[in-house]
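Possible regression after last week's pipeline update?

I re-ran a chain I had predicted before the update to compare outputs. Posting the input and the new output here so someone can diff against the archived version. Not blocking, just want to make sure nothing changed silently.
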Amino acid sequence: MFKLAKGRASAWAILGAVLFMIVQVVASLYLPNLTADIVNKGVALGDTDYIWHAGFKMIGCAVISVVASVCNVFLAAKVSQKLGQRIRSDIYRKVINFSHDEMDQVGTSSLITRTTNDVTQIQNVWVMILRMMIMAPIMLVGASFLAYQKNHTLTMIFLIVIPIMMVFIGIMMVFAVPLFRKMQEKTDKINLVFREGLTGVRVIRAFRQDDFEQERFDDANKDYTDNAVKVFSIMALAMPVMTLIMSGTNIGIDWWGGHLIAQQALETGNLIAFITYAMQILMSFMMLSMILMFIPRAQASATRINEVLNLTTTIKTPANPTPLDQQHASLTFDHVDFRYHGAEDPALTGIDFDMHAGQTLAIIGGTGSGKSTLVNLIPRFYDVEAGAVKVDGVNVRDLDLKALHDAVAFVPQKANLFTGTVRDNMKYGNEDATDDEIWHALEIAQAKDFIEENPEGLDYHVEQGGGNFSGGQKQRLAIARALVKDASVYVFDDSFSALDFKTDAMLRQALKDDEKISNRVVVIVGQRVSTVADADTIVVLEDGKMVGRGSHAELKASNVTYQEIIKSQIREGDED
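New output (post-update):
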């Protein structure tokens, strides 16, 4: 946890918090001494002037203690919040550069938990460290020394009390620490189930699985609650047991101290001061026990965060990247093999084709044949196992990642729009795009009409995930966003699936007629034969292997897999 905070926490703020805390402790330790002097000298001798003089000193110490405490709390809060801010920024910066492999490895729900709940645990413990962990030992040592000075005989009582407290704290830690560590994993599970329920609420309602999903969430929630009840029940014992120990200690000190006063071996003021120091000693132990309870949970959170921060990104920009010349657009797959991380069998085998500017490549095949996997290799979301993927004649592994992503416009299967306006979303493709360029892209994507119908036009508000648009409208806006970008390769990963046949045909024709797009390489992944039929080259995939390559007419005449796809979609007599 301290290693995680290194370089992220302000050294000056930490030093200030520690100094103010020391001032607070010193003032707190000095107050009982003044109380003893007032009782022993002022009250016993009837010296009113001394009482007033010592009283003003007590007020001064109290004011100093309060001011120091406020400053300490302020700096501790500032350090912990800044630390949390920097850790969250580090996690986000790391995650945003993850390849799909690393995202699959950690999981979205777990990343959300680590960025929120885990960071909060570390923040809370850092406040406790700067408030109590440093204060407790100093107060413990200081109060013990001053108590011994007041009466060394009475300090013998701590030989009984302190071992009892240590045994109790040890028992609490044995039972509580493992439960604290489990809480973060159970939080992950709740986030996973809750997130799936929110994103899939329409599917849940459509299949009337409300009760099943509610039961699934209740199970995860109950599992977390049972764990939390156990650990906080153990923690709840701390206060009454500590209060019992402190009250018993007070009784013992009063009884023993009364005998010493009767024997004139102890002054009354010193007994009062000794009781205060005894409470400070026991409170120090109590603070240490609280910290020792929460540090393992924060340490578990820090370990989970470090797993993300230390995760090696497999896809990196090379030390000396090859410059990219976008004057001659091309896309080449040179005998490419690919296997997902940890998989036994390859997802793609022997993929080989070469496309040039002005050509359209279509990819078709059954579900799970590897279509999306293939196009994910173009922007280097994954790295190939063998062979090479080349954009504009350069191996994507030799390119600067930013240059590669600038050269590839990618429309994923799931259309994802961001909260903001239509213009904001369109400028994701090109932040310098003019309104005319945006309208042109919307026109090609067959999205201009429904945007123009709204009085706000390009300033029309887009809700989270594009919830105020239909599936087909979201797809067309996602396509327009890609078209705003000036790229060498345009990839449409089954991006026409929500469009009707007429809109699909009009969009593809508009792509062909556009001057800019006609000088680029277009890759279309499709399920429908009508979507891919007019492509220059069609690649047919089956179980990750390229079982056919050619034009629609060539494949229709000679490729069995392609013929089966046609027969499954087109009625006999309508094949042409």
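Follow-up from reviewer: compared with the archived run. The chain has a mean pLDDT of 86. Marking as no regression found.
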